[in-house]
Specification:
229 residues, alpha+beta, Ribosomal Protein L22, Chain A, 3-stranded antiparallel beta sheet, 4 helices, globular
Length: 229
């Protein structure tokens, strides 16, 4: 694992790992996937493992779930009975590399990377920009890869992916930073966290906490007596 950055803002951890044939405790079952697809996915999940270990998160207590738009997020495993906030995560892939970002609880994050010398054809510019931004891209085509990765990072930080039209993203209104790391153009975006899908344990823990607050004599468990033994 190779660390990247840092980026000024909330506490973050940014890293990359060469894509390789590997496995991960967080790997998903991907039916009919090509070997390349499996290597991309598993390398990203293995990198996530390494990032979480460096962050200090117990791997045996969490799992990676997805929102309705397929955005990954961390959750405590059922039976652990914990509901404190976990870091936000984002994973990406580009030619030869998996990239991963963690951000402190209370934020969502998105990371995207591409080879810094990758060229985007001019006929694709109107898929990522409109109006004045499109005119700027046409006149400054060397900025295309930075703008492209920045918008993908925002899509991930919003947990919407391509459900958020890149032409609707106004980069100056977002927390997004782009930088070159070795051979990569890397973009990171972040925002205040929204709500992840809730679990049954979340609801029970919240209900228990509320009952304890409302009733000081509230207890969980049972009373036993040994007097008659």
């Amino acid at each position: 694992m190779e660390l990247m950055g840092p980026v000024e803002g909330p506490r973050m951890l940014l890293a990359r790992l060469p894509i390789q044939e590997c496995t991960s405790i967080f790997a998903e079952d991907i039916p009919r996937a090509t070997q390349k697809r499996l290597n991309d996915h598993n390398s990203g999940r293995l990198l996530l493992e390494k990032c979480l270990m460096k962050w200090g998160i117990p791997l045996d207590s969490i799992e990676v779930l997805r929102t309705e738009h397929r955005a990954p997020y961390l959750s405590w495993i059922n039976g652990v009975w914990r509901n404190e906030p976990l870091p936000g995560i984002s994973i990406g892939h580009c030619e030869g590399w998996a990239v991963c970002a963690l951000i402190e609880a209370g934020f969502w994050i998105g990371i995207d990377a591409e080879r810094k010398d990758r060229q985007i054809q001019a006929n694709a510019f109107d898929m990522m920009a409109r109006g004045n931004e499109l005119n700027f891209l046409i006149e400054n085509s060397k900025m295309a890869i930075e703008i492209w990765t920045a918008k993908e990072a925002v899509q991930k930080a919003e947990k919407l992916g391509m459900h958020l039209n890149p032409r609707d993203i106004n980069l100056p209104k977002n927390n997004v930073k782009s930088f070159i790391h070795d051979d990569l153009m890397v973009s990171v975006a972040w925002r205040k966290a929204g709500d992840n899908p809730r679990t049954a344990e979340d609801n029970l823990l919240d209900a228990t906490a509320e009952a304890m607050k409302q009733n000081p004599d509230f207890s969980v468990g049972c009373k036993t007596s040994r007097n008659n033994l």
